[in-house]
Design brief:
Layout: E1 12-14, E2 17-21, H1 22-29, H2 33-42, H3 44-47, E3 54-58, E4 68-74, H4 75-84, H5 89-124
Length: 130
């Protein structure tokens, strides 16, 4: 099954590390951002078992020029958050798309890793020696 084009904005990369944000979760699930933030705060201890959460105050995301809190979540944080969210139709749709996107990314990574392993093996072999 192919991911929809807009599924590629569910997960981004920073130095090769996949992440998403509280704002993306809010936008894609139809849950108010303040409610996503409240869910993060309510479950902060559990979420931090999956790594440190990064909080950024982003002026660009604000509607009134005030700084808006945006959490950056790794994939484990995001999966845990999705587990905690109630199952409205939009939330269920987002969960399915996020899971599919994670597996697509994993498949792409594994395919590129396999190619690199094969290429490195060929380079190291006697067949490619000059």
């Amino acid at each position: 099954m192919k991911s929809k084009k807009n599924d590629y904005d569910l997960i981004m990369y920073d130095d090769g590390v996949p992440y998403t944000t509280s704002l993306i979760i809010s936008n894609k699930t139809g849950v108010k951002h303040k409610n996503v933030i409240e869910l993060i705060h309510k479950n902060l201890d559990s979420l931090e078992k999956f790594g440190m959460l990064i909080l950024v105050k982003d002026v660009m995301q604000s509607t009134r020029g005030q700084k808006k809190k945006v959490y950056y979540l790794n994939i484990k944080h995001a999966a845990y958050m999705l587990m905690l969210m109630r199952g409205s139709t939009l939330v269920k749709h987002f969960k399915r798309r996020m899971i599919q996107r994670c597996f697509d990314m994993s498949d792409q990574y594994n395919a590129s890793t396999d190619k690199n392993v094969i290429l490195n093996a060929l380079i190291d072999s006697d067949e490619c020696a000059t």
